[in-house]
Amino acid sequence: MKDRISIVVMVDAVGALSDRTLHNGNLSLVDDSSGSKHQGTPDLITTVIPGQVVQWTPIHIDVQTPVEIYSIEFLPGAPAAPPAGPSPAAPPPVDAMGSNGTENHDLLVWEGVVPYDMTPGVPYRYRLSLKLHEGPNSVLHVDSPALMRV
Length: 150
What we know:
The protein is mostly beta strands.
């Protein structure tokens, strides 16, 4: 398997803000890992191996409404779950640089390393929180995606 897995987080920000949900076709998760399930849905289960780097990249399909990853937190319930919050499983966002070496605020990438103590075959669900534009109702989340060790 590859050293790095990329998960693209595609968001219809206008639809999500209007519906006040990331469901109803407003969120599509796609990765480049072989064996993953539910590609193109908020229920993506990404297959990973310990030590692999997982990278989440948000892309907004509406050019007027910015989207950024607000947080990624692993949910309790799975045995030996990866730690939540700013840890090796979900570090703070890294400023993305454009090809010209300048900061690119349209592409804030999050990445983390898959821990070695994940139980094989168990999906580790995480809460993906996205910030859409500004305001008190601008952060929406889903609890349906997961990483699963093969």
